[in-house]
Write a structure and sequence with these properties.
14 helices, mainly alpha, 337 residues, single chain
């Protein structure tokens, strides 16, 4: 009976996260649509070009491939995992992020690595934090550069500056905590407290990549990843009839990416519409175009990614969903050595 209490707490926490995410989705969607005519969104969707959408899908596929390479580099200090296994795990995580609220797909990503390769959940989650940290710092930099380039032309950047400051604070705090875990102070603290959880030791070892030359390699790949990431967004907006400039594309990349850290519903509904509308309006175009572009991204890019993730899970692991939600041991077929 005592073992049921932690599981009930985990399940209650998941339900609370989902509830908050759905509530935020409705709030941001209502806020966005309150100032955007629905018929204007429909008109933009009606002219969406399949050619540009197809190009965006191909670029996004290349983006995921590069992200799998980077994640494998981050994981290398603790495990030499074959690229196909890492790529499948990343696809599962990104795909389930698109259909589950509050980024629950990240938990499935770590679980997939554990069941397919035997890597501990703590190391898997630590590597995901590092990956997201580099992503966050990069998109904050993109937003800052975009705003600097556009500062001379536009003055109505108040809310975008608020988003930038929030991103700097959030990822600055994450970086500080991660460096503390990776630093010598944490090592000395662990020596003084031998009874400290072994999980803390694993987290400390996982974050050591931030104090090694490997972090330069990860940063370089993150910079490369930024190119197809931005291009995919540009192609999605182009599909609904708007060609963005360089600075406006950087702003859209920054705002859209940072919007995903806000609790939201499946496919980032609501928050993504709000972010696209905000960035497109700042670019001087109707916000309805932004809502339409966000919808195209969700339906034509995030949904196929989610379907591919579900297909991988169905093929490899029947019980992964329930194992993450209630912490039961999944029944997965090993797919790696």
């Amino acid at each position: 009976m005592l073992g049921l209490a932690p599981r009930r707490f985990e399940l209650t926490a998941r339900i609370f996260q989902i509830t908050v995410g759905i509530a935020c989705a409705f709030f941001f969607l209502a806020l966005t649509l309150s100032r955007v005519p629905i018929d204007a969104v429909g008109a933009s969707l009606a002219i969406a070009s399949p050619i540009w959408i197809g190009a965006a899908i191909l670029v996004y596929g290349a983006d995921l491939s590069l992200r799998a390479c980077r994640w494998r580099i981050i994981l290398r200090p603790v495990a030499a995992i074959p690229y196909p296994t890492v790529a499948q795990a990343l696809l599962v995580g990104y795909g389930l992020n698109a259909i589950l609220p509050v980024r629950l797909g990240e938990l499935f990503r770590a679980e997939f690595l554990k069941t397919s390769f035997g890597l501990g959940r703590v190391w898997g989650l630590t590597s995901i934090v590092i990956e997201r940290l580099f992503d966050g710092m990069m998109v904050v930099a993109c937003l800052a550069i975009g705003l600097l380039l556009d500062a001379a032309r536009r003055q109505n950047a108040g809310i975008l500056i608020d988003v930038l400051v929030t991103g700097v604070v959030v990822f600055g705090l994450i970086l500080f905590i991660a460096l503390c875990f990776a630093g010598p102070l944490m090592s000395r603290a662990l020596v003084r407290f031998p009874r400290l959880s072994a999980r803390t030791v694993k987290v400390q070892r996982g974050f050591e990549v931030l104090r090694s030359w490997r972090s330069v390699e990860v940063a370089a790949i993150t910079l490369i990843i930024c190119l197809p990431d931005a291009l995919a967004l540009w192609l999605v907006v182009k599909a609904v009839g708007l060609g963005l400039g360089f600075a406006d594309t950087l702003i859209l990349l920054g705002v859209a990416s940072l919007s995903t850290i806000v609790p939201s519903g499946p496919a980032f509904i609501g928050t993504l519409q709000f972010a696209y509308a905000l960035a497109i309006e700042f670019a001087g175009a109707p916000p309805a175009v932004g809502v339409a572009a966000a919808t195209v991204a969700q339906v034509c890019i995030l949904l196929p990614t989610a379907l591919a993730a579900v297909a991988v899970l169905v093929h490899r692991s029947g019980g992964a969903l329930s194992s993450v939600l209630v912490k039961r041991e999944p029944k997965l077929t090993p797919v790696g050595p």
